[in-house]
Amino acid sequence: MDDPEICFSILLNFPPLASDAETDLFRAIQSIAERPEPQSAVVPSILAGFTDAHFFRRKGIISYGFTGLATTEDDARRIHSTNERFSLSSLRKGIQVLFEVVQDLEL
Q: Using alpha carbons only, how large is the chain's radius of gyration in Å?
């Protein structure tokens, strides 16, 4: 920008950090997520957006963005909208999936 009236300030700047996919937690997530759909695949991905995961990762805590929520097309359209919400059935299912992940880790 060749305009002396415009200035930029860095507000947030974090080094990129990712949790390894070769962990007991990732394997538990894969196992539970693939039960209803054995042909499905759980793969690491990068999303545009912001989470607090980098704070945990910086402390060496494995952190994934897995919620267990089964989102519908309607849910996806409402993400970050003025009417953002999930159905109670999606929430219940997500809680059940996360509970099964924890149970799988305990075995």
A: 18
**Distance (Å, rounded) from C-alpha 31 to C-alpha 50?**
27
DSSP structure class, residue 11? -
Q: How far apart are CA 58 and CA 14, in angstroms?
A: 10
- pLDDT, tens digit, for every residue of 6-61? 998 998 888 888 899 999 999 999 999 888 888 888 887 777 677 888 899 999 99
Domains of the chain: 24-106 (1.10.150.900)
Please state the φ and ψ torsions of residue 97, each to the nearest 5 degrees.
-65, -45
Q: Any idea what DSSP says for residue 23?
A: S
